[in-house]
Amino acid sequence: MARTKASITDLAQQLGVSVSTVSRALSDHPGISDTTKKRVWKLAKELHYQPNHMAAGLRKGRSNLLGVLVPHIDGHFFTLVVKGIETIASKAGYNIMICQSNEDVTHERKNIETLLSAQVEGILVSMSRTTRDFKHFEKVRKQEIPLVFFDRVLDGLDVSAVVLDDREGGYQSTKHLIKQGCRRIAHFGGPQHLNIYKHRRQGYIDALLEAGLPLEEELIFYCDMTLEDGIAGMQKMLALPTPPDAVFSASDFSVVGALQELKRRKLRVPQDIALAGFSNETFTSLTEPMLTSVDQRCEQMGQSAVRLFLEMREEHSSTFSPRRVVLQPDLLVRESSERSNGKK
């Protein structure tokens, strides 16, 4: 049978003192004698008493909890963002409560309710791919709980957020492919209502136009950025009368699917088709060849999101003007795109 946890009331009853006396003894209150403190701590140890810090915090109007809502934590990116969040949050005296939407807006709505029920002091969120409105976040705003978005935001939304300069990342990737001699570059793009995919696509367009290359809609494949989507997208591109000589994907997951399809067809990477992805997932340096990708400053993004929350916490939420922190991307060139002297 599981042992029942001792409560502060149990300690008070066994010692024959009031609950308030036990509470003050446990918090080393100067008004309690050393003798009483020793008796309280001795019994607390014997009964394996553990103070309920959350309950104590709530009595003071604070939970010291920071809610974090992510689409998933099974990849490199969000795992490192959470690591960055935890580093700064713990230094500021906060514990974090993590929820996953699993890329499902219905689940995301439930996550928000869960975090509000836990009386978190702030919420840091990266939206799911299926989120298309802001309604379920309005409840957070109405309760004047600081709300900070990171990475994914509905495009055009005026909220506090920490984002990468995704347009610059898309531009750098495509420009690199052009410098390698690629002239017919395909793009695998994600849902365009989300800032990250819309801006990565725009960076791709910017680089093409700057180089005097045509924008061809047949070379753009919109998908949910999964490995299976990458396979399907590559199949579609290879079926064109004139297949592309490179692919810039807005996600590493879809670009690794493209790599699998090219290998299955015995096509060479980068000689026949060069590849570049986005996010610098761990597997990009483990594939053969290793995949060119854009690093998103994951830990820095998480740290910046917490700092933005702390700024909001200091000011009154209702008067806080939305602020946006923009981080700069870093293109990591690897074997999948590097052609010697820009020649095939």
Structure description:
With 344 residues, the chain is an alpha/beta fold. It contains twelve helices and twelve strands. It has helices at residues 8-15, 19-26, 34-46, 53-59, 76-91, 105-117, 135-142, 166-179, 195-210, 227-238, 252-264, 298-314; strands at residues 65-70, 95-100, 122-125, 147-150, 161-164, 185-189, 220-222, 246-249, 274-276, 293-295, 324-327, 330-332. The strands form three sheets. The chain has a six-stranded parallel β-sheet with strand order 2-1-3-4-5-11, sandwiched between helices. It has a four-stranded parallel β-sheet with strand order 7-6-8-9, sandwiched between helices. β3, α7 (135-142) and β4 (147-150) form a beta-alpha-beta unit. α5 packs parallel to α12 and α10 (227-238) packs across α11 (252-264). The protein is elongated, with a radius of gyration of 26 Å. The mean pLDDT is 89.
- What general outline do the C-alpha atoms trace? elongated
Number of helices: 12
Rg calc: 26 Å
Tally of extended strands?
Answer: 12
Structural class: alpha/beta
- Main sheet makeup: 6 strands, parallel
Average pLDDT score: 89
Q: Element order, helices and strands?
A: HHHHEHEHEHEEHEHEHEHEEHEE
- Measure the end-to-end span: 71 Å
**Strand content range:** 5-15%
Give a quick precis of the structure.
It contains twelve helices and twelve strands. It has 344 residues and is of the alpha/beta class. Strand 1 (65-70), helix 5 and strand 2 form a beta-alpha-beta unit.
